Amino acid sequence: MIGQHIQDLRKRRGLSLTELSLRAGVAKSYLSSIERGIQKNPSIQFLEKIGEVLNVSVEDIINFGNIDQSAALLDKEWEELVKEAMNSGVSKEQFKDFLEYNKWKLHQEQE
């Protein structure tokens, strides 16, 4: 299961098995055996290396299938807000800029 999740993340990032193994500094054969489920218990060090390249935490890799489904569902109000923003023409970049501005503003207020 962890291997399948790593493979899904790798493919979503557009990386080949070779690219991920080189960037993470892990053996391609070991990564392949993890993804195919031959090796089922990768070390934390391995997961840290893979997670760094894939931009996910070790916890996210390990707990991907253990999240309570009800807790994983988006709050309906947030979902509606996102849909409204999308329908009004707000781009992802504009939304990210807005979030960054708010983070900066909160930081300024705390100082």
From TrEMBL:
Domain Sin: 65-103
Organism: Paenibacillus chungangensis
PROSITE patterns on file: HTH_CROC1, SIN
Name under which the protein is recorded: Helix-turn-helix domain-containing protein
Domain HTH cro/C1-type: 6-61
SMART domains named in the record: HTH_XRE (SM00530)
Assigned keywords, A-Z: DNA-binding
Family matches, as SUPFAM superfamilies: lambda repressor-like DNA-binding domains, SinR repressor dimerisation domain-like
